[in-house]
Design goal:
A: 449 residues, 4-stranded mixed sheet, globular, B: mainly alpha, 58% helix, 6% strand
């Protein structure tokens, strides 16, 4: 009897070990509010099916973000109410599991008609033939006035449109800059590399701060290419040759890229930047002088510093200030049978009123001038107007190629290696080799010489 | 371990009279195991010989051993120091060290060095002014494998030892021992993600509790997770703390199954405490110990959550593990075929280790 009991205990223990070993999903993305409980909502039961309305299915990643999903539901309700041809049926997912759901559904051929995709992944979905081109002409895009970086394209064809975006900037404090006699930069005259180096030294030497600058170096994933890529671009380097999309040699490991790598490494070597901050409160608590971060932190920063807070443009390292672009964008799946209805709803969402509604509820930056004009915060004179202008003037899209998933991953590996003191050129060389091998394995991802 | 001795003789075949109910009861479990465990296992082996991608418009192709050859290729490249063509002297860098050509000049030179194509420098050593570069098809995987072994070799003895000490401690007849048992066991039932996040705060170089504590003893702040030499030990300490409660519980069960009569007999024979421990307790815990060994080994090789949450594999790739690599290759970069090859190789390695363990720890007749 004892032995029998023992083996049951043993089995239970093995099960526990396996469960704990497999437990734990990926950490939440930094850009969004922590996910709330997953919700699944079927918007409105089909009351008027008999009236000849066609159902159009739609997925959203925003279940964990009450504001964003609220805006989406509002738009759907308005759209469903104002016409009788189509009824949009929403299902929403928390962001952490959304990409898995989309991948799974794509493989199973089970995608909804309308779905939102993270901007840089759009070319990969287009290449995989999971989404279809949008029936929109360049002239119509001009009419909408959408910021070009918020249009998802693969080989020139339009596949997705974004209602909102975020901007990268440097958070600073007026009192601090004045105290140390530092020029307050403007969008027309941002800090130059030499100026910035000097400023970091001054702030660090002052002894008032643990670190002169915080770049959220402890985050993982897309933050690295999104935030550090633009610095590389401003140096004159790149992640891949954007003429052919076939090679990264001399772009990601050329002299400009090497110069960027060595400069970036020096930030950590000289102790200006914390390579692994445990929290994001450094700037808001006054432990850090400057904060390189996205516009999503404007509210908490304003709460912390009020009128003293400054929104400063990214540094000009030679090629002008650059910031990343491309947030969640709406696309139509290739298997969608109601593409007309899907497009009707997407064009409805791109109307200024809907873009303004989304922006007002979520505090994200509207992607059209007409949309921005209708909001309080992003219209001329609004408190966050500067973010719209930064996006309009400095935004550069991440490489529009299906290889981007590999580029992003390899770029993160190389950049974190550089942060940790590895040889910059070696790290970039390895990234180039891995990216080129991946492109070769996939026969150029649809690009030809 | 199963207790079948009394029954074995009576039963002639597996499909005796009880076959119906047995199948009915076992069926659902067998079906699920087949679907979610055995099926994927063989699918993974099949994928490892293809260029299967997570998503792709191109059909999956059979690529033979390409994934394996990328994973397991090695080569050595001998480099002569650079010579200044004008003076004929050896070139030296600012610190007086010899200069060598970069290994990439050879690995990217397909025309002259086809056998080196696709290889990357893993590390290099110097012998008599010559630099020997060890090239590997996938140094990141090899490094991750080395980290897994490092982690397992430290964790297995330490975690067992700590678990045993705790078990001996809470086995004493003292007040509040259930309280301590619960405390020590609680990390085991807490989510590893939560624990990893909490320990990231504890380890913080500037504001962390651990450095604040060390500062009281005049020890300088250590950048636990930011330094390549301390990052892995920091993860080990945390993992031992998290996992030892389970070993404690198992040892406790083992201790209580040792009959008191043995200890009584020993004390009559005049054995001291150490001798009782050495000759009664330890042999009595033998099967518990083997079981602990195997479970810790498996858990140690599955190391993923802690580095994923706490360091992302850094700093300087010092905490990458094979499972982390598999995730990066398979999901982030979508190379399912290659990730499957990693899984197969890793499976064979763990299998070999378990066979060796079984052989070493076999019951001596």
């Amino acid at each position: 009897m004892k032995l029998r009991l023992w083996s049951i205990v043993a089995l239970l223990v093995v099960a526990t070990v396996l469960v704990t070993a497999c437990g734990g999903g990926p950490a939440p993305e930094p850009t969004e509010a922590p996910g709330a409980a997953p919700t699944e909502e079927e918007s409105k039961p089909a009351e008027d099916e008999s009236a000849g309305t066609t159902k159009v299915s739609m997925w959203s990643h925003a279940a964990g973000n009450p504001k964003e999903i609220g805006a989406v539901e509002q738009m759907i309700a308005d759209f469903n109410g104002q016409q009788d041809d189509y009824e949009i049926v929403l299902e929403s997912f928390p962001q952490e599991s959304y990409n898995d759901s989309v991948q799974g559904a794509a493989i199973a051929g089970d995608l909804p008609c309308i779905l939102d995709l993270d901007g840089p992944t759009v070319p990969n979905f287009a290449w995989s033939e999971y989404i279809q081109p949008l029936p929109v002409s360049e002239a119509e895009l001009d009419e909408i006035g959408i910021i070009p970086q918020d249009v998802g394209r693969y080989k020139g064809t339009v596949y997705s449109l974004g209602q909102f975006d975020v901007a990268l900037l440097i958070y600073g404090r007026k009192s601090v800059l004045e105290k140390y006699d530092i020029r307050i930069p403007t969008l027309d005259e941002p800090w130059t590399k030499e100026e910035f180096d000097e400023i970091l030294k001054t702030l660090q030497d002052s002894g008032e701060f643990e670190y002169a600058l915080d770049v959220n170096a402890g985050w993982t994933g897309e933050w690295w290419p999104y935030a550090m890529g633009p610095m590389l671009w401003s140096f004159g380097g790149g992640m891949i040759d954007r003429d052919t999309y076939l090679t990264a040699e001399a772009t990601l490991n050329g002299p400009e890229a090497q110069a960027w790598g060595e400069w970036f490494q020096a930030l950590f070597e000289k102790g200006y930047v914390n390579p692994n901050p445990a929290d994001i409160e450094g700037f808001n608590q006054g432990r850090v002088a400057l904060w390189y971060n996205g516009s999503w932190s404007a509210d908490p920063a304003t709460e912390a510093w009020g009128d003293d807070l400054l929104f400063l443009p990214a540094v000009d390292f030679g090629e002008g200030p650059k910031i990343g672009a491309g947030s969640w964008q709406w696309a139509i799946s290739a298997t969608c049978e109601e593409a007309d209805g899907a497009w009707e709803f997407i064009s409805y969402m791109m109307e200024p009123e809907q873009i303004a509604l989304m922006s007002e509820t979520t505090a994200l930056i509207p992607t059209t001038p007409d949309g921005a004009a209708l909001t309080e915060t992003f219209s001329e004179g609004g408190k966050y107007r500067v973010f719209y202008e930064m996006l309009d003037r400095f935004a550069m899209v991440r490489p529009r190629t299906p290889a981007y998933l590999t580029i992003s991953s390899e770029f993160e590996q190389a950049t974190t290696l550089i942060r940790d003191g590895g040889n910059a050129l070696d790290a970039l060389d390895d990234a180039v080799d891995a990216i080129e091998r991946d492109i070769e394995d996939n026969d150029g991802y649809g690009f030809e010489e | 371990m199963a207790d079948r001795s009394g029954v074995a003789g009576e039963r002639k075949s597996l499909f005796g009279a009880d076959a119906g109910p047995a199948l009915a009861m076992g069926g659902p479990a067998f079906f699920l195991l087949l679907l979610f465990l055995i099926g994927p296992f063989f699918a993974g082996i099949a994928f490892s010989f293809t260029n299967q991608r997570l998503v792709s418009p191109d059909p999956t192709e059979f690529v033979g051993l390409r994934n394996y050859s990328r994973l397991l290729r090695f080569s050595v490249l001998r480099l002569e120091p650079l010579v200044d063509e004008e003076t004929g002297e050896l070139m030296r860098d600012e610190e007086g060290g010899l200069e060598y050509p970069r290994s990439r000049e050879f690995t990217r030179d397909e025309e002259n060095y086809p056998r080196l194509t696709g290889l990357t420098e893993w590390f290099n050593i110097h012998i008599r002014q010559k630099r020997y570069v060890i090239l590997a098809g996938d140094p990141a995987f090899i490094k991750a494998l080395v980290h897994n072994f490092y982690f397992a070799l430290v964790i297995i003895p330490l975690q067992s030892a700590v678990g045993l000490i705790l078990a001996l401690a809470v086995n004493q007849k003292m007040a509040g021992r259930n309280y301590f048992r619960t405390i020590y066991f609680s990390p085991v039932v807490t989510s590893m993600v939560v624990i990893s996040i909490v320990w990231t705060f504890l380890y913080d170089a500037n504001n962390g509790l651990i450095n604040a504590f060390l500062a009281d003893f005049g020890i300088e702040a250590v950048n636990w997770l930011g330094n390549p030499t301390t990052a892995m030990p920091a993860i080990m300490i945390m993992s031992i703390w998290q996992g030892c409660g389970l070993q404690m519980m198992l040892f406790l069960a083992g201790l209580q199954s040792i009959p008191d009569s043995l200890y009584e007999a020993a004390s009559i024979d005049g054995a001291n405490a150490w001798e009782e421990f050495r000759f009664i307790t330890l042999p009595g815990l033998r099967s518990t110990m083997i079981f602990n060994f195997i479970t810790i080994t498996i858990a140690a090789f599955q190391l993923f959550t802690q580095p994923f949450v706490m360091t992302g594999g850094g700093p300087n790739e010092s905490t990458t593990t094979v499972i982390l690599r598999m995730r990066t290759e398979g999901f982030r970069e979508q190379r399912i075929g290659y990730a499957s090859a990693i899984a197969v190789v890793f499976f064979l390695i763990i299998l070999a280790i378990n066979l060796v363990q079984r052989y070493v720890l076999r019951e001596e007749e």
